[in-house]
Design goal:
The structure is a homodimer of 492-residue chains.
Chain A (H helix, E strand, L loop, with lengths): L7 H18 L4 H17 L1 H12 L3 H24 L6 E3 L13 E7 L2 E5 L13 H9 L3 E4 L5 H17 L7 E4 L5 H8 L3 E7 L2 H12 L7 E4 L6 E3 L1 H6 L1 H13 L11 E5 L2 H16 L3 E2 L3 H16 L4 E5 L8 E2 L2 E6 H5 L12 E7 L2 H10 L3 E7 L2 H6 L1 H8 L2 E6 L38 E7 L20 E3 L2 E3 L1
Parallel strand pairs in A: 1-18, 3-4, 3-6, 4-5, 6-7, 8-9, 8-15, 9-14, 13-14, 15-16
Antiparallel strand pairs in A: 1-2, 2-17, 10-12, 11-13, 18-19
């Protein structure tokens, strides 16, 4: 089946339809939106094995992973359904009037979150379901009350088309305005550019490469009306090994990290691409153990040829850098579509003088940086760019001794992990998946968890409104029974 | 007294000192920060009449207004002190571990707001105290835990220097790290550019012109690491008069609006620069009454010569546009430093075809747009750019009839007012002072009220931390007694 690029005229028609739909959809109750979001989950489930097979065919992902990801996707549809049905997410705040206040009366002012308008979503190659057509960006934007235009990812167009069909069926079945969702196709840059530049677009969600995300970010800021771009781009997710703890847990740490490095053929945004340790006996033993684990590991098929080629090119680049010592690579045979796990190490002073070594290698690779002392460890951490995650492996008493390091490290990441691995992003209210640039374009917002909805809203204050004219969320009697800040006090 | 431009080297030294200070200041308790912010208020009060006289001399503002603004400034210092002392503002969220969950265990994840880093503040000419050196931007950033570098406004350098002295005294008296506040001077663009471009700057607060704010926004986005700019820039604050209500309240409405147009010589960002009404008898009577009010009003001294010149130039430009009918102007004599109130009217079709008429005229001026029918009223509202505020004058039954107009209007503004005037921005939790572009660069954040603190923070998630290593806000025992979301439930 072939999918033609959507024309500029078709895009404009879709954007106009989305704007018309927005003016009614933004006022639809949380309960109605909840039914719609739950219906998307049901329709995705109704696609059954056919969807799973399509994803497997288009992405080379194994069945268990695809089913798991499908469940994660229906899971976040239901999570946002629960969130908007309950309703407190709008951050309602009420300050009642004080007509006799001197020198001037205080007016009645109330505030709540309202949707921004139409959101354009670019899905991720590595999450064909959970971060694509009905992914976290789309579902959180729809939950917020925004229409969504999804550009199908060229690497899994058929999957995207099936998922889009499920969303359209859910729209029909729950009586939503049909214009709130559009699915467009584009193999080159033109369609994406036209979507981001369209005056009716109010925000952009993107998951992918630094080059792609940054290009959209620049385009959005050059518009007559600049708009926010939430791009999740590039992170090497450093892991710092504290020496005493490492000396007691060499093989455990090696097997923990090898598992994380090779998970999903290294194709996760939270893949640990950098390991930082002191140059000592424990680290030498750890390197030996990690090397052995990587040697035993198997290459796996990558998502598509472009990603596989890029992994080989980036790997070759790193290999050729002065001071790079290849530690080990998987000894299994592999074909050019497969990502072959490997690790290297480098002295900290070399790493510090070659910024290209801090750039992401998307695939099952990690670079171990050997520091001669604590000062150098501090320098390496201070030199890091913004990251989605930073991890420290160390027991509590030793972490206490490295408090100032942890203090600096926290400035580099959106999520700090102790004694775990960065892969495996829990979907829950406390998750924050969004770190300082270049890991994302806006460290203040998360693309995972319920707070992802906050990207697509802005506060609107209502001053001196009669009760009947206010949105339900702000009415005196609190008809929705939501949490609200009333005259400085949080209550239901 | 003369103030030399701060050199690039001095700026770099200040930024480095701010970064060092940040690494300790960010971990200081809310209680300690509260003492510091309250001390700023005390030191400002200790400056007494000398500060008031200096402001009056530099800005031409009358004594009562200056005292009022000083009290507003000490008021927001204490408001943020109360906020950070109580502590719930950090949005703490806790999801505890489920080690036995299938297929994978759920880790313990906790999240709270943490400061971004050093913030550069550009003060406003029209609020020499409340939106300048110790203004809402500075105080909310310090409350968040960010160091602040203020560039003194060239139009009130002496005021700024005195206020900076008060902040520095408060730092000493409460034992804060000295590097958290720096005060720099610059008459041209160079100093501001150097501050925004400096790699250690993490956010910018600005209040001023569209040209100035947009230039800083562009500069910040062109950095290797783009940073957020919160610029409050340009708004004409449209007021829509509904016909039935107007017909019953002609003179009341005219005097209400005349008061708002001429308040503070029209030098408020919420000044009502556009009035939209249907072309009917009531509107004709309203225009007569408003004209009479404006004729009787007095010119007043503007903040500085640049603003006065700009008001004259912009007024002359509007006067010369085809279709503009001058309705009335103040009949008092005035000198070139004084802003002379005047109003004009124009037919909606002319307004719709001349976008320059929708640009801000900073001063005591308003343009009345006459619409032939409801459709044209709808077109004019739809054509509006983003605004800080939009106002509707209409009683509840009539507003109900214009529900679709109100629905569109809400998309244009950060604050919607019924039967009031946009001037007079209440400082309270429910205030939202920040509308769609070009009124601000980021409609999602407010520069007034307690939520202004949200501009200078980002969430950080802590995964699998032992209790003792967590910030107090996230410890199991909730030692600060703050509101937290714990496993999906809001509790103290």
């Amino acid at each position: 089946m072939s999918y033609q690029d959507t024309s500029a005229e078709e895009i404009n028609i879709a954007m106009q339809a989305a704007q018309v739909a927005f003016l009614s959809y933004k006022n639809i109750s949380g309960k109605q939106k909840a039914k719609f979001l739950a219906a998307i989950a049901e329709e995705l489930e109704a696609l059954g094995g056919e969807l799973v097979t399509t994803v497997m065919k288009e992405t080379n992902l194994p069945e268990a992973r695809v089913i798991n990801e499908r469940n994660r996707t229906t899971g976040h549809c239901r999570m946002f359904a629960t969130l908007v049905e309950e309703g407190s997410w709008v951050d309602a705040s009420i300050d009642t009037a004080l007509p006799n206040r001197m020198p001037v009366p205080k007016p009645d002012i109330r505030k709540m979150m309202r949707p921004l308008g139409t959101v354009v979503v670019f899905g991720a190659a590595n999450f064909p379901l959970a971060y694509s057509t009905a992914g976290g960006d789309t579902i959180s934007a729809l939950a917020a009350g925004c229409p969504v235009i999804v550009k199908a990812h060229p690497a899994h167009t058929e999957t995207s088309t099936k998922v889009a069909g499920a969303i359209k069926t859910a729209i029909k079945k729950t009586g939503m305005p049909s214009g709130i969702f559009h699915h467009v196709y584009g193999t080159g840059f033109e369609v994406g550019q036209a979507l981001v530049k369209h005056p009716l677009t109010k925000a952009v969600g993107f998951t992918g490469s630094l080059a792609g995300g940054k290009a959209l970010f620049d385009l959005a800021n050059q518009r007559a009306e600049p708009i926010p771009v939430f791009a999740e781009m590039s992170s090497i997710n450093p892991v710092i090994l504290l020496p005493d703890t490492l000396s007691r847990n060499v093989s455990k740490t090696a097997s923990l990290l090898a598992g994380s490095i090779t998970l999903g053929v290294g194709q996760f945004c939270t893949n640990p691409g950098l390991i930082i340790a002191l140059e000592d006996d424990a680290t030498q033993k750890f390197l030996d153990a990690l090397s052995e684990e990587v040697r035993k590991s198997s290459p796996g098929p990558m998502l598509h040829q472009g990603i596989a080629d890029n992994y080989i090119n980036r790997s070759n680049y790193v290999r050729e850098q002065p001071g790079i010592q290849v530690m080990s690579e998987s000894i299994d045979t592999h074909n050019p579509m497969q990502g072959r796990p490997w690790i290297a190490s480098v002295a900290a002073n070399v790493f510090l003088n070659n910024p290209s070594l801090a750039e992401e290698v998307f695939g099952p690779f990690s670079l171990v940086v050997r520091c001669t002392d604590r000062n150098e460890l501090h320098s390496v951490v201070s030199s890091l760019h913004g990251q989605l995650t930073c991890t420290v492996i160390g027991d509590a008493p030793e972490v206490k001794q490295y408090e100032s390091l942890l203090n600096v490290l926290t400035e580099k990441a959106g999520r700090v992990i102790l004694n775990g691995v960065p892969t495996g992003v829990e979907v829950c209210p406390s998750m924050h998946h969004g770190g300082p640039f270049p890991s994302t374009t806006d460290s203040r917002f998360s693309s995972v968890g319920t707070d992802a909805i906050k990207r697509f809203v802005r506060p609107v204050a209502y001053q001196n409104f009669e009760n009947a004219l206010l949105p339900d969320e702000l009415k005196n009697e609190n008809p929705l029974g939501i949490w609200r800040m009333v005259n400085g006090e949080l209550k239901k």
